[in-house]
Amino acid sequence: MEAQNRPSERFTWKISNFSKLTSRKYHSEVFTVAGFKWWPILIFPKGNNADFISIYLDVPDSASLPIGWSRIVDFSLTVINQNCRDSSITKRTSHKFTRLEANWGFTSFMLLFELHDQTRGFRTQDTVVVEANVIVHSAVGVPPIVVPDAVPPPSAPSLDAYSAREMDREGPTSGT
What we know:
Residues 152-176 are annotated as: Disordered. Pfam families: MATH_2 (PF22486). Residues 8-134 form the MATH domain. This is MATH domain-containing protein. Keywords: Coiled coil. The protein has a single domain (8-140), classed as Apoptosis, Tumor Necrosis Factor Receptor Associated Protein 2, Chain A. Helix content is 7%, strand content 40%. It is globular, with a radius of gyration of 16 Å. The strands form three sheets. Strands 1, 7, 8, 10 and 11 form a five-stranded antiparallel sheet that branches. A four-stranded antiparallel sheet has the order 2-5-6-9. It has helices at residues 112-116, 164-170; strands spanning 8-15, 26-27, 32-33, 36-37, 41-44, 52-58, 70-79, 89-98, 103-111, 123-124, 127-140. The N and C termini lie far apart (34 Å). It has two helices and eleven strands, in the order E-E-E-E-E-E-E-E-E-H-E-E-H. By secondary structure, it is mainly β.
C-alpha cells in the first residue's frame, strides 16, 4: 500500500491559558485515525523531568486492550509558530504501539524558555498550538476501545522517542 493511501489524520490542539496550567500533564481530546478514536496528545507543559516541553502520542485505556494488540505508525508532532508557520518546530518518529508501549514521543521537544518567549511566536495570547499527524501502517488485534469524547484517557507516562514511563522512573536513558 502506498504511504499516501494509508489511513492518516491531522489533529490540531489549541491550548488556551497555557501559562496558567498547573497539572503535571494534560491530554488532548481523543481524535480519530483509521476510523477509531484512540490518539490523544499527551503534554507535560513544564517538562517531564526536563527543561523542555514534553509531547507524546498516547493510546487511551491501553490496559484494557487485548494481548497482541498493536499499531505501527509514523507520526509527527509540531508546536506551531503562530507568527510564521515556516518556523514551527516538528519532530517525527515511528513506533509500534502496544498495550505495554502505549505512548511515544519527545521528552526534549523544545526548550521551555523558547516556548515562553513571547517574541518567538510559539505562545501567542497565552495560547500554544500543537499539531499531530499520524499515519497508520499496520494494525494487529481488535480495534481499540472507543472512548467517548467526554471521558479523558487515564493518566499515562511517556518518552523522547522512548516512553515517558521510563522517564518518570529512572530519568533519561539516552543523550536527549
